[in-house]
Amino acid sequence: MDFIFQVFGSFSLLLDPFNMTYVVLGFVIGTIFAAIPGLTATLAMALLLPLTYSLNVETALMACASIYMAGMCGGSITATTINIPGAPSSMMTALDGYPMQQQGKGALALGHAALGSMFGGAVGALLLIAVAPFVAELSLLVKTTGKFSLLAFALIVVVIAQRGQVAKAGLAACIGLMLATVGLDAMEPITRFTYGNSNLTAGIALMPVIIGTFAIAEVLMQAFAPGDELATKAAADKVKIRRRDFIPPWSDIRKIGFVCYFKSCLIGYFVGTLPGAGGSMGSFLAYTETVRTSDEPETFGKGNPKGIVASESANNAVCGGAMVPMLTFGIPGDPITAIMLGVLVINGIQPGPQLMADQAGLIAPMLAALLFSAVFLIPLTLYLIGPYFIKIVSIRKDVLYAVIALLAIVGSYVATYSTFQMFMALAMGVLAFYLRRNGFPVITMLLGYILGPNLEEFLRRSLALSNGDPTTFVTNMDSLFFVLLTLVFVYFLVIRKPARNPAVEA
C-alpha cells in the first residue's frame, strides 16, 4: 500500500517543467517513430538511450515510460489511414480501421483507437501499480535453483512463441547466450573468448548490442527493402482529417460496451506478463476473443469499431504487464522493456525482489509517467496534432535513415567513449541484419544476451550447492513449479497447436 501512495505522490514530479518537457517530448517522439512504417518505438528508445546519461534517473525512466506508451498507440495512425501498420502491435487494428477510413470515417476510427489505447494503458498501469509489490514479495520465495528455472522458462517461452520458426529462434537465442559469455568469467577471475584482445576483457557492452540490433540493423534492412514511397505518399495526401471528427459518440461507446474494453485490457495485461509475448500477441488474442463472442462476427474486417477497440485496448495494456517480470525478476517482457532494463542497469538499479522495497522512490515516478501518458497524453496528442501525423510518411527515406544511422553511431560512442565498442555496435548491426534477412527473430538473440549471465550464474551456483546433482532442479519446489510451467507452455504452444479462427483470417 505504501508503494501505491508513493506512485500517486510522484505525480508532483510532473509539475516540474523539466520533467514534463521530457515526458511530453518522449511521447511525441515515440508516436512519430511508431507512426512511420518501418520505424518503431524500440528504435526511438535505442537512439535516445545515450541521452539518458545526462539526465537524473527519475527523468530518464519517466521519458522511457512515455515513449513506451506512445509506441503502442502510435502505430494505429497509419494502420487506419493508409493500411500500413506503423508498429507490429497495430496489425489487427488495420483490419477494421482501414475499412472505416475507406467509408469516410477515418478520424472516428482513430478516435476509437485512442479511446481504446487510453483505457488499455490506464488499466495496465493501474494493475502494474497494484500487483507489482505483491509479485515482488512472492518472488522472495524463489531461491537459487528456482531463479535458474525461471530464467530458463522465460527463454524457452520466448523461443516457442515464435510460431513457425522455433528452430531459428532457438539458434538466435544460443547466439545471444554465446555473446554473453565473452569477457570475465561470472564466478572465477579468468577471461573467456577474448582471443588475446584486451578490449574484450570486460565483454561486449549492452549499449552497442541494443543500438546495433535495432538501429543499425533497421537502417540496413530499409536500405535493401523495395521502396514504394510514391504510393505511400499519394495515399497520405488523400487523407483529410478534422479534429472534431476524432471524438467517438456516446452511442458508439455504449454499443461497443465496457465489457469489451475491460476484457481486452485484461487479456493484454496478462499476455504482457509472459516473457517475449508482446503487443502483437495480446492484440491478436483480444481481437480473436471479441470476434468469438460477438453477435455479428461477419462485420469484423469490414469496419467494426469493436475490433479497433479490442486491438488497441489489449496492446496498450501490455505495457503494464510487460513491466511486471522486468521489475521483479529482471526478465524483459518485450524488446522495449529489454531496453528499459538496460536503462535501469546503467543507472545502477538492479531489478529484483528487493527493488520495490529498496528503491521504490526511483521506480514510482516511472509508473506515474506511464499512467499519465495513457490518461492524458494519448487523447490530447491525437486531438491536437493527429491530423498532421499522417504526413510523417511523406518524409524522404534516404534523409530519414541517414540521420538515424548518424545518431546510432554517435550514440554508441557517447555511451561508452570507446571506438572499439562503437565498431562492436556496427558488427552487431551487421549480425542482426543477416539474422533478420534469413528469418531469425533477433529479439530472442537479445534476450539470450541479457539473460545469459544470470542464467549461467544461477546454474553453476545451484550445481555447486547440490554437489553437482542435477535433480536439485526437480526436488526444490520453487524450481519444480517453473519446470512444470515450462512443460505446460510447451504442450499448448508446440504440441497442441491452437485452432485457427476463420473470422480473423478473413
Give a topology summary.
Elements: H1 2-9, H2 17-35, H3 41-48, H4 57-81, H5 91-102, H6 106-139, H7 144-160, H8 166-180, E1 183-184, E2 191-192, H9 206-224, H10 229-238, H11 250-256, H12 258-272, H13 278-293, H14 305-329, H15 335-346, H16 355-358, H17 360-389, H18 397-416, H19 419-437, H20 442-465, H21 472-475, H22 477-495, H23 502-505
Antiparallel strand pairs: 1-2
Helix pairs in contact: 1-17, 2-3, 2-4, 2-17, 3-4, 3-9, 3-15, 4-5, 4-6, 4-14, 4-15, 4-17, 5-6, 5-14, 6-12, 6-14, 6-17, 7-8, 7-20, 7-22, 8-20, 9-18, 9-19, 12-13, 12-14, 13-14, 18-19
Transmembrane segments: 20-49, 61-87, 107-136, 148-164, 170-187, 199-221, 362-386, 398-414, 479-495
Domain DUF112: 21-447
Protein name: Putative tricarboxylic transport membrane protein
Descriptive account of the structure:
It is a single chain. With about 500 residues, the chain is mostly helical. It has one domain (about 1-230, about 245-505). The chain is about 70% helix and about 0% strand. The protein contains 23 helices and two strands. Strands 1-2 form a two-stranded antiparallel sheet. β1 and β2 (about 190) form a beta hairpin. α1 (about 1-10) crosses α17 (about 360-390) and α2 (about 15-35) runs parallel beside α4. The longest helix is centred in the N-terminal third of the chain and has 34 residues, at about 105-140. About 55% of the residues are buried.
